[in-house]
Amino acid sequence: MTDTATPKAAGATPAGAGAPARAPARSYAKLAADESREDYSLRYAPHSFRRWSPATVAGTALGGIAYLADFAIGASIVFTYGFTSGLASILAAATIIFLAGVPIARACAKYGLDMDLVTRGAGFGYFGSTLTSLIYASFTFIFFALEGSIMAQAMHQAVGLPVEAGYLLTTLIVIPIVFRGMGALAKVQAWTQPVWIIGMVLPFVVLAFEAPDAWGAFGSFGGTEGAGSAFSWIGFGLGTGVALSLIAQIGEQADYLRFMPARTEANKRRWNLAVLAAGPGWVVIGAAKQIGGALLAFVALEAVGRTHALEPIAPQIEALRPWLGSFALPAAAVFVIVSQIKINVTNAYSGSLSWSNFFSRITHRHPGRVWYIFLNLAIALALMEMNMFAALNKLLGFYSNVGIAWIAAVAADLVVNKRIGLSPRYIEFKRAYLYAVNPAGFGAMVIASTVSILAFFGLFGRYAEAFSTFIAAGLASTLCPLIAWATKGKYYLARPNPVNGPGAEVADITATHTCAVCETAYELPDIADCPVRSGPICSLCCSLDAECGDVCRKQPSAGPVLMPVPTVRAAASEAGQQ
């Protein structure tokens, strides 16, 4: 399915040579036009769509932390580098992710934008963020494959289903849910939460009664590869790199946070708490799961061996066996399957958004978010069949160099550049106002990730290899403000926004304007003034226009076509909450 935009009418006057002929309206294919499924995948999420309470949005976003890859990652780190270095690695990575996640989560919730749109306006430019869409897409299918492998292992243990068939089943089972969008995702996360909470807590309760000395023995564990129980800087650096691979999870949280209702005086406390919990707060629970997963694997190590101890299903069974006996296997299997469905609907959903963003800019076509679900899942299925689970540490360690360079650059722009005036204080995401590439964020990410990857492969010595992710984070967060300062912030805006962007205090951001191309009404932050169309154009029609030649950025507009509408901000916020 594709949008059915027709070519510019014959004889249309070129922009700048007089009034252009009115282009026929673009009509979108049925699924692309159905926002109940499309969920404003390439757009600003309007206040009229943000009908959920802060608690509901936060609960749905936190449903994604059900994943059991944390168990496998934590166990792998501790088994490889020992308890002391492993624990320090997990806590250091969690601290970095939390600090980077705070400004990103607040920006996404405040402006109703996903991670890709925030990246555009936070130092990367319109095409500069295309590369980060690929980075994000790769995160979603890598972790879908990882989580799917864990689910297939559980099915194999429980009913003897061959893991290859399990890979296919875990892929197919999420499609009907993800196809229906945010409404279905919110219901699934809410309905499965009680089962997940019981399954998460029960093994540790059993251990507390049946193996009270396990934690003491775990604290002196030296790993399975001779690392020893003493602290090692090399082990700490390498372990942190593996744990930091989860940093792109903030993008998946943002895909839900963009539906947060407007912040008002009445709800600001609940809003702030929900954004903090659902944004960076996930990593607090994530770090606890990594440590807990390592403990369960350690306790099960002697009974099941190292290979199976790294598969979350086996430690779950061993932990539950003293109380549940023969029912330990089905109980553990149900918990694992529920957990993996909860996270993989999020992975598939976020992947469809990132692929949509990528291909809309490359092809100027938008068949609809739902079609990219199948692309993302096909890649994930291929990775599962290739047994990527066996190369967990190396794969995640490499990926984290790129992921952290991206996230650190965006966070630096939000925290530093926007506060000291090197970039606009609001997030401008529309093509009509952005340069193709902004060297501040994009350049910082490319330089930082290149240097850190070279370090990761040992070019600068053993310690640089171990601390390659710290190099990526440090360079990206330093270079972004430095490049913005050196370029005097020139590449953030190609031309001024006539209503000063989504943060404009003089405009009613809930007022709608009809797009001159698709003839559909959108709220003000999703609209740009277009000299080619001589009227408002929505952000998606602007993105898909392959014929305009970016005239709006190359010559002065005849004058703003979007007139500010006086209003009271509180009234607009209340309207958005209803």
Structural write-up:
- By secondary structure, this protein is mainly alpha-helical.
- Helices cover 62% and strands 2% of the residues.
- It contains 24 helices and four strands.
- The strands form two sheets. A two-stranded antiparallel sheet has the order 1-2. A two-stranded antiparallel sheet has the order 3-4.
- α4 packs across α15 (282-309) and α19 (392-417) runs parallel beside α22 (468-486).
- The chain is globular.
- 58% of the residues are buried.
- Residues 1-24, 501-506, 557-561 and 563-578 have low confidence and may be disordered.
Attribute tags:
single chain; 578 residues; mainly alpha; two-stranded antiparallel sheet; 24 helices; 2% strand; globular; disordered N terminus; disordered C terminus
Secondary-structure map:
Elements: H1 30-33, H2 35-38, H3 54-63, H4 69-81, H5 83-111, H6 115-124, H7 128-159, H8 163-172, H9 175-179, H10 182-210, H11 214-219, H12 233-243, H13 249-257, H14 268-278, H15 282-309, H16 313-324, H17 328-363, H18 369-385, H19 392-417, H20 439-456, H21 462-466, H22 468-486, E1 512-514, E2 521-523, E3 527-530, E4 535-538, H23 539-544, H24 569-577
Antiparallel strand pairs: 1-2, 3-4
Helix pairs in contact: 3-10, 3-13, 3-14, 4-5, 4-12, 4-15, 5-12, 5-13, 5-14, 5-15, 5-19, 6-7, 6-19, 6-20, 7-8, 7-17, 7-18, 7-19, 8-18, 10-16, 10-17, 12-19, 15-16, 16-17, 17-18, 19-20, 19-22, 20-22
